[in-house]
């Protein structure tokens, strides 16, 4: 594999001629470069006017390699050929180099260039590029490659020290200015002047053997700017070294090279808007600076952004009022490192209500807008604090987290959001502070953590109870003055308090679809109609005992009775009730019956859960740990109103209630899932014993545990 290097533009705030004068002093040997033994001039050309000076040298290097490797290779020194072309008229120096030793086994090429800064003729720019291709090397190809790259990168930034060393030396000698080249005058003394110019040009062309890519000597010519201000307008819109340091941070030479090469590739091949440099760097960091992998995920992300117009989401999309009122999250100052701080009161948020009222699409858009706002705030803080800030800190308060937050479709929606964010906003989370984690948190963590990148998980800090107030807690990361008031701090936090989303705001899948929004539950939830004498039933086949059947359903219309049955034999293929029998017109309102009418309860099948009566408007969530393999049937049955025991005449309330159920029809929306026992182990106790500080949810939640099946059913009623 060919290893490549591309430097950023390094800018010296000195004239070209003075840099050349300092550069020439590195010959014939340089004490700052011990491995450079010496060099011999092979060819030399000088133009008559002294403007052009080309010199070719054979450079001798003492390679810092293991003695055994040198012995196997049969060499003590490595030779490179370097060609320097100085054009004093154009004020440029081009350096081309290649290896002479082992040229049939190893191919090393390097090009360096000194030019005048395009916007300031008294400044000098430097760039270099190189490639290393090891065809074969006595079976030590990998070792040689590592040695070469290590020495090369370790010596690249020495260039600044070397140039500054000789600039100081010139200053001590009183040389602070070197005149530019001018065409020689045609006078009797022109011959003398020409000779003098040639000597000066020859001396200025003496350069360190930059050809030694393998040893990084050409990198010694590299120099960073002497002033902190970023330089703009560098040739071909290339990055300069100081800009990288100021806005992107301290990068190794190879990391700089990866950034520049990927950026160049995007400029050449991507027709749309390319990301900002800090975002390109995030993708590289997410893939450990593997250009091919970073390029792949970045291209996918760019396509995604273009398709969904994410670049304009902050300007063109207004979050629905439901999100503004009930989404308990918002930006809140910054942490001690200058990162923007986002506060999320997850325990106080009705995740199910938000999904049911808005759909996954709107919720996803809102999360994307939060991330886009985070990117914008990072840019602002970079300017404010004068150092690179490319990520934000998220503070998640779990006070109030309970079983409702483990609503399976809601968790799946969360996993989908995590997937989208991980793919398109890598390395944006600098730190995640999880506070007041209850006992139910390990269950949520077990479900979510496999979908989070390893690098991201290492940024998580989790505190139970009031541990965040002790040593190593919140004060280590956030100034005392901005700790939110709900965490016993002094700062008023304007983050919405959340709360239950009224059921009146819930919308059906059809309604959301009509608004061109995709409900996350559209592919998870199913709708069913339940009639008097025609229950709706679904079959769950269990292979391994102790599996967990989970369910979540809403009674959209009427009252129903929910049952769970077990049978050792499979029912007949499901038969859908004919449309004519019950006038089913809604495509989403199917009705499937599995239990044959000849089956007898107790002989052909058995009840494994006590019947649960569910009223219209209730949300029911529960689970059942299976004791036997076989076939489980989940049934929703029409609930008939019982007659009044004290009188043969029906009560007015019963009559009114029966009239509300037109045509004796009920409707449910449900979702079920089977979880392996190993994935669900240990969660039952946590769920049953969870407590919540979210008073409304806690008061509205009841749990029932069946000892023989370890089942749980949770129900919520909304006022």
UniProtKB/TrEMBL annotation:
One of its GO terms (cellular component) is cytosol. It is found in: Cytoplasm; Golgi apparatus. It comes from the Eukaryota. Its main location: cytoplasm. Residues 521-674 form the GOLD domain. Gene3D superfamilies: CRAL-TRIO lipid binding domain, GOLD domain. This is SEC14-like protein 1. The gene is SEC14L1.
């Amino acid at each position: 594999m060919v290893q490549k290097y591309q430097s950023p533009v390094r800018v010296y705030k000195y004239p070209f001629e003075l840099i050349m004068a300092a550069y020439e002093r590195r010959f014939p040997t340089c004490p700052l470069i011990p491995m450079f033994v010496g060099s011999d001039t092979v060819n030399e050309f000088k133009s008559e006017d002294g403007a052009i000076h080309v010199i070719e040298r054979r450079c001798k290097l003492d390679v810092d390699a293991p003695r055994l490797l040198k012995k196997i290779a049969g060499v003590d020194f490595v030779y490179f050929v370097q060609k320097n072309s100085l054009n004093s008229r154009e004020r440029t120096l081009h350096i081309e180099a290649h290896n002479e030793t082992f040229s049939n086994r190893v191919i090393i090429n390097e090009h360096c260039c000194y030019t005048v800064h395009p916007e300031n003729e008294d400044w000098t720019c430097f760039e270099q590029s190189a490639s290393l291709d090891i065809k074969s090397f006595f079976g030590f190809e990998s070792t040689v490659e590592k040695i070469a790259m290590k020495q090369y990168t370790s010596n690249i930034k020495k260039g600044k020290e070397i140039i500054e060393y000789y600039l100081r030396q010139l200053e001590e000698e009183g040389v602070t200015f070197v005149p530019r080249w001018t065409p020689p005058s045609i006078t009797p003394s022109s011959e003398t002047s020409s000779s003098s110019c040639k000597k000066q040009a020859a001396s200025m062309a003496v350069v360190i053997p930059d050809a030694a890519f393998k040893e990084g000597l050409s990198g010694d010519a590299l120099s960073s700017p002497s002033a902190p201000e970023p330089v703009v307008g560098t040739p071909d819109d290339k990055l300069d070294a100081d800009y990288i340091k100021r806005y992107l941070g301290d990068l190794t030479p190879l990391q700089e090279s990866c950034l520049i090469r990927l950026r160049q590739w995007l400029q050449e091949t991507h027709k749309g808007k390319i990301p900002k440099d800090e975002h390109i760097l995030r993708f590289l960091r997410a893939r450990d600076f593997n250009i091919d992998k970073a390029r792949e995920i970045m291209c996918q992300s760019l396509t995604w952004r273009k398709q969904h117009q994410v670049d304009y989401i902050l300007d063109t999309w207004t979050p629905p009022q439901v999100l503004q009122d009930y989404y308990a999250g918002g930006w809140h100052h910054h942490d001690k490192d200058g990162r923007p701080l986002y506060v999320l009161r997850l325990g106080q948020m009705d995740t199910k209500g938000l999904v049911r009222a808005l759909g996954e699409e709107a919720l996803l858009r809102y999360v994307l807008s939060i991330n886009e706002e985070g990117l914008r705030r990072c840019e602002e803080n970079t300017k404010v604090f004068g150092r690179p800030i490319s990520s934000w800190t998220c503070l998640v308060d779990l006070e109030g987290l309970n079983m409702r937050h483990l609503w399976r479709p809601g968790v799946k929606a969360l996993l989908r959001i995590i997937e989208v964010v991980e793919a398109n906003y890598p390395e944006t989370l600098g730190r995640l502070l999880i506070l007041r984690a209850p006992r139910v948190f390990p269950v949520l963590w077990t479900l979510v953590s496999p979908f989070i990148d390893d690098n991201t998980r290492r940024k998580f800090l989790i505190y139970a109870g009031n541990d965040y107030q002790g040593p190593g807690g919140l004060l280590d990361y956030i100034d005392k003055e901005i700790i939110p008031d709900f965490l016993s701090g002094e700062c008023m936090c304007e983050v919405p308090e959340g709360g239950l989303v009224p059921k009146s705001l819930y919308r059906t899948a059809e309604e959301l679809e009509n608004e061109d929004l995709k409900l996350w539950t559209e592919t998870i939830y199913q709708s069913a109609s339940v009639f008097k004498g025609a229950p709706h039933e679904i079959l769950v086949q269990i292979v391994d005992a102790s599996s967990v059947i989970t369910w979540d359903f809403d009674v959209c219309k009427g009252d129903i009775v929910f049952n769970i049955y077990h049978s050792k034999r499979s029912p007949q293929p499901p038969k859908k009730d004919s449309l004519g029998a019950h006038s089913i017109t809604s495509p989403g309102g199917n009705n499937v019956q599995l239990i044959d009418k000849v089956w007898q309860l107790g002989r052909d099948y058995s009840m494994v859960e006590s019947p649960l009566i569910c009223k219209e408007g209730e949300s029911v969530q529960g689970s059942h740990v299976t004791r036997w393999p076989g076939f489980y049937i989940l049934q929703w049955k029409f609930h008939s109103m019982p007659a009044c025991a004290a009188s043969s005449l029906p009560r007015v309330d019963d009559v009114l209630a029966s009239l509300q159920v037109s045509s004796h029809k009920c409707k449910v929306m449900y979702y079920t899932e089977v979880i392996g026992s190993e994935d669900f182990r240990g969660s039952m106790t946590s769920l049953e014993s969870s407590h919540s500080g979210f008073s409304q949810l806690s008061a509205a939640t009841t749990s029932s545990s069946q000892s023989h099946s370890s089942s749980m059913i949770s129900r919520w009623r909304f006022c």
